[in-house]
Amino acid sequence: TCMYGRYTQELGVYAKEEAARLRESGQRRSVSDRSRTLDLLEYDKGRCAKCRICTVRCQKFLISRVGEDWIFLILLGLLMALVSWVVDFCIAICLQAQKWMYGGLDSNVFLQYLAWVTYPVVLITFSAGFTQILAPQAVGSGIPEMKTILRGVVLKEYLTFKTFVAKVIGLTCALGSGMPLGKEGPFVHIASLCAALLSKFMSLFGGIYENESRNIEMLAAACAVGVGCCFAAPIGGVLFSIEVTSTFFAVRNYWRGFFAATFSAFIFRVLAVWNRDEETITALFKTRFRLDFPFDLQELPAFAVIGIASGFGGALFVYLNRLIVQFIRKQKAINRFLMKKRLLYPALVTLLISTLTFPPGFGQFMAGKLTQKESLVTLLDNRTWAKQGIAEDFDYIGHSQAWKHPQLNVFVTLVLFIVMKFWMSALATTIPVPCGAFMPVFVIGAAFGRLVGESMAAWFPDGINTDGTIYPIVPGGYAVVGAAALSGAVTHTVSTAVIVFELTGQISHILPVMIAVILANAVAQSLQPSLYDSIIRIKKLPYLPELGWGHHEKYNIRVEDIMVRDVRYITLNCCYRDLHNVLLTGHLKTLALVESAESMILLGSIERAQLQSLLSQQLGRPRRLEYIRERAAAEKKHLSVVSNPGSEDGSQRASQEVRFQISTEESSFSPTRPVPQKPLKPALKRPSVVERPTEIPTGKKHTYLHKQLQTTEFPNSRLMKQSERKGIGYLIDPKGDDGDVEDDMTIREIAEWEEKQLDEQVNFNNCKIDPAPFQLVERTSLHKTHTIFSLLGLDHAYVTSIGRLIGVVSLKELRKAIEGSVTVKGVKVRPPLASFRDSGTSSSENEATELHKLWDRHKSMSLPREHTPSESDEKSQ
Amino acid sequence: TCMYGRYTQELGVYAKEEAARLRESGQRRSVSDRSRTLDLLEYDKGRCAKCRICTVRCQKFLISRVGEDWIFLILLGLLMALVSWVVDFCIAICLQAQKWMYGGLDSNVFLQYLAWVTYPVVLITFSAGFTQILAPQAVGSGIPEMKTILRGVVLKEYLTFKTFVAKVIGLTCALGSGMPLGKEGPFVHIASLCAALLSKFMSLFGGIYENESRNIEMLAAACAVGVGCCFAAPIGGVLFSIEVTSTFFAVRNYWRGFFAATFSAFIFRVLAVWNRDEETITALFKTRFRLDFPFDLQELPAFAVIGIASGFGGALFVYLNRLIVQFIRKQKAINRFLMKKRLLYPALVTLLISTLTFPPGFGQFMAGKLTQKESLVTLLDNRTWAKQGIAEDFDYIGHSQAWKHPQLNVFVTLVLFIVMKFWMSALATTIPVPCGAFMPVFVIGAAFGRLVGESMAAWFPDGINTDGTIYPIVPGGYAVVGAAALSGAVTHTVSTAVIVFELTGQISHILPVMIAVILANAVAQSLQPSLYDSIIRIKKLPYLPELGWGHHEKYNIRVEDIMVRDVRYITLNCCYRDLHNVLLTGHLKTLALVESAESMILLGSIERAQLQSLLSQQLGRPRRLEYIRERAAAEKKHLSVVSNPGSEDGSQRASQEVRFQISTEESSFSPTRPVPQKPLKPALKRPSVVERPTEIPTGKKHTYLHKQLQTTEFPNSRLMKQSERKGIGYLIDPKGDDGDVEDDMTIREIAEWEEKQLDEQVNFNNCKIDPAPFQLVERTSLHKTHTIFSLLGLDHAYVTSIGRLIGVVSLKELRKAIEGSVTVKGVKVRPPLASFRDSGTSSSENEATELHKLWDRHKSMSLPREHTPSESDEKSQ
After folding, report:
1. How high is the pLDDT of residue B219?
2. From A291, which residue of chain B is nearest by alpha-carbon distance?
3. How large is the ipTM?
4. What values do phi and psi take at B590, rounded to 5?
5. In chain B, which residues have their Cβ closer than 8 Å to the Cβ of A788?
6. CA–CA distance from B725 to each of A610, B10, B617, B687 (Å)?
7. Exposed, middle or buried: residue A17 (CB in 10 Å: 0-12, 13-18, 19+)?
8. How confident is the model over B23-65, as pLDDT tens digits?
9. Which residue range or ranges hold the 4Fe-4S ferredoxin-type domain (chains A, B) (predicted)?
């Protein structure tokens, strides 16, 4: 007993300590933990209590740590590094297998061709089929979707485990085929998937992972990890992900991104060292350019030319990509055929591309036998290929030999490579497999840069510098510049410059790269949207276009010029009929609630679904049965106490009481048994729910009535049809199991009853109201509106003037205004008189008059109120 | 005449074309241009019309271009590059002069010492005095101030030309003295000054430079330019400026920053090439580390140690810096003495530091003769100084010789350098001259890294790699890592890593640098605020602390837990007395306007100043004179038409009419001559304005009255005193020149009149009301509140519940809540019952009851309204 006593005492002290410590930590967690400790005290008075305490302590420690951001970020980084490395490894094996097959069959060209072509076709077809079956959301880059998700829009099924599996396997197969596809876009998506799944998994331990804004922050960090572990470029990854996915960026996220991306890149490179691929941690595509004199000042014009040309090229690439998609969509015959055989299009495209790159065939003129990685390594080589236009003295070693053709000049090979790869990449990225376009574009850019560099080297064989020392021109530097410029132009980012430095491990060309990237961006941004924005438009994702730079007319447009003045609203004292009418005509997801139609003071906004459930409750069967029951009771009462003169008043009070019950609790319709609440939600989602009762045999009479209702000429039948047409489903409880009351109402009676119900005033008590929807003032500038919309991820905002609702601006209006003012430069978006409102005095006058009205109204209203002392009496009750 | 005719015709066509073109461009500009063209048509029918047309055309083209952002950014970049280069040039000359003096006097050590010490003392004293006299705002780094300005707070005099001149000249002198000071912080400020001045200058041509949000965007770009042209580091500059100045960053600004910073860095480096300092464009502190094997994987722990140690060091630096400032402030004796002789403190500090660095003295043990730049160059050298602990085989060339001491080990020199420079830099940055702390910290970090690197090199003389090839350890790489880590720790930024790459021109150490910087940040951020935040706190600038990372309790605090429930508000039907009382008790800059005290529906917010002017109008002398005039007129009327029974009604209507006049136009008090409006503004600013009339001889009687007013026991005298105490100045027009009416009211009459005036209802018509102040809901989380406050740069926000004002949150509450939850970890900020509000149902109930009240009120209000048809009649009138 002494032992027991000691243990329990110890446990008691421990429990106290625990309780004290737990009091300090979060409450939610403490409750569960304390109960666990208490459980322990009750049951575990056995001998392994000490051991258990230890376990609990460890568990608690782990749980408390799990909640920290950095644990999450480290796990995410580790996971993504592993995924990236495994994917790279598998891709390398796939590519090696193809080469091995191709090399082994060198006796017969036809067999070689078959092997060269069949392999990618099979892989791509498998990839397309697999993603199509498992998760069609995994198709494509994923950056446009992530941009939309980070904007606050919920895209269904984009962050599930299925999508993760489909994306990883699909991507591996697609890249293993050797097509000109990239892994960087999909990796942004994969990292976000990882983060979403990881945070779901970790929310099993702690409660904080359920917070929405935290989730968005973690997704932003995940995007950085995606790029970071793909290129082993932490800084470039963070910046690229910011530029590509965000409009406004919280600097505190920046931190998270850096931490996770660095860790991820580190692990990714360490894995390569451990696998004996590398001797130490270095850049992915290490260059060995001259350090002391990287380039001459007089070479800068050439770099600028690369930048400008890349700008045009990038715009052309985006345009070509969109053109192909639109062409296939528009050509109905092709479309119909392809839709039937979903896998035919990928197979055909792959066949075409792989046929053209077949090394003994056309491929010999465009270094077709090199994989993407090999091409890039050779293009970034620091030796000059051509001197004085002749490829004679070029020391071809390793893969660089592929660029040499006995008959052709190296320039021709490069031009062919650029031209062919250009349209091939644009075509290949339209295949419905998980794939990105960054890497192919990067390689094309490098080739273009190399071409310019080789030309420069041929033009100035002894370099440009006139100071004595001969510094020959480094065409590899030009390739670096070209790669950064073209990928920057296609994605509309500047951070490709940083990615390039991290990829090559050299920053000596920083100024040429920066200049070229900025010029390329300036050209491309003025011609085309970015590739991701283009895809967003093609996919019709909900987006908000960027304010271009230099479009300063945006500062002069005001909200009042673009807002919709005809706002759908409901008043606090409206009846159900108004609700019904408003629901039929509007289209926004939420509706404004104003005090009254005269005052128009905005009180809040209500979701459409809430209003629909209000209506369905009012017109639903339970309420009708309740009515029947009440009527029967009243009749009985009337029969029994018919001589009592106070009966009318009593019944009135009773009905009021029932009314009150309804307002406080939903289940008060049938006091004996709660109304089944389950069908409410699905019923609201399904538009054709009205027809559902026909399938359920228990509600036969109901069904019959309903069918008649739908065929008769009564107004509420019209009402039902209208609702159906507009996709509004009122809940009509299909389970007619309130058997204690007989539904003996005729159709006419029901119609009359419904009409009566519609005339009642709406009771908003059970309704969830957003009490502070976002409000703008009529004189808010378009620029500020855009800022606020993209900052806060708004869908719409109400425009108020001294508390009065005067308009609404949704994403649509904003988009129109921005696009209108961007594309049609000559057309003014402002109404002719708008400039007169600019002066400060007029606005204050305007406000003053508004206020004056309000004041007048107030005065006239306050007078009668003083005459009614009943109000204060009511309140004091 | 034919000639004339032709010209005019041509001009007419031209004018038409012009008009058509102008119609398309901005209206404001077009008006001025059109008038110019018309002027041309009228006056210039002479022979040089053609020439003039050309000029006008060119001018117009230039003006239209000037409005574009990129012109502005290029000009800014160019200007800043020039400033940076000139400042660098002058600093170099100053330092050379010191060396020359010191070198020339090598015969006499005492003279040498005098020269060594006097030179910096004179320069620093001049710098301190110059900035003190011209613009005291130029003192210090400027980054804290820029952070505050970008947060939306207007700091006076911080962006003026005077400050620009003071900062540039003060900085040049301060750095020319050779003290351990940096130029990077001041350059951020200088670039912002440049941008502000440039935009002011360019607004002479176009109108768009007046937009506030655009100005903020340009300032953000300017900060990037500042860092970019200081270090020739465009990418690092952009990132550093983002991290240091912003909480939320618009990606569209990122673009601007990159563009301007790249251009600026380019010009800055090109100037060096043109000046024959450099052969071509390279990095500022170019390193020549090995490319193929930069570091071994097993060296990473050493890098991590540097990171962690730098984290502690950085926190210590910030703490030391604050300690010194606070010590000097607290020691009243010292403080009083130093305040008298403002230049003594800089002189003393300089004397101390320069004495200690005197090369033949203690300076020989700490490489005292090297300038900051020279030290950095030697520290980043790629050769090893020490092998096996002996500095024998170190090939000392150039400045590196300074590190060698015949008696001392190189390790001791390094340790002494680090320790001495550490406190010297912390001390030197407290001198009131324009100076930054980045560069000194950077150098100390490099020295620390070098120390670790040399130790490693001594420990592993043959390198760590076990694979056969000997790769000796590169201590220069450690120096790079240390520099980035320590400067990152002091400033709480990660982008120092990028700056380091751009400064050295090598990115091969990216992973060690990133790891060290992140570790240093993690340590430093958990110990101390950043140097800039520390200065913000010392200077008591209005700031909002950051949400730390990992402090996830912030997601659980709601606005209702931190808001002030006792809101000062004014109602629409309040009288002037209420206004007066509210002004006396409140402290916020704006006051909430609600519909009525019962409904509490928020209509908008009014600035304090507006209310003060309302009150002063109501109680001011013009109004009283008006009253006297009216009374006199009424008396006359009464005397003349005493028998008319309708007179009372008439006079009432008259007074109402006057009331109406007042409400529409301010000058209607004295219809013959407008009331002088000028003294209104200064009067409101000055708290003691009530006493001002005593100084003006014209208002003698008024003054007398006032003096009496202030001594008598009347309530309004008390009122005056109260106003004085609270710093509220009512305008009492000092010019008593309304001589046409005799101010014959006695004191008692005035008091009575004022009392009567105070009981009148406030007329808000002339008041500027912000109709949509920012609103939060009571359940908004602290995290979201912080986000919104920092996103939108708010000062306060009202908390509403279904349109009803229930509380207010200002920056103060938010700061308290954040700091409370950050520093006192155990204390919960939430009230005990807050967790119960977390579940969804309770909140909707809460909302429902709120709404219920509103609804009841509405019902009770709508009933009497129905009984009063007069209202609608009134409206139809």
Report:
1. 86
2. B288
3. 0.70
4. -125, 155
5. 792
6. 54, 70, 20, 8
7. exposed
8. 555 444 444 544 555 555 555 455 567 777 888 777 766 666 5
9. 39-68
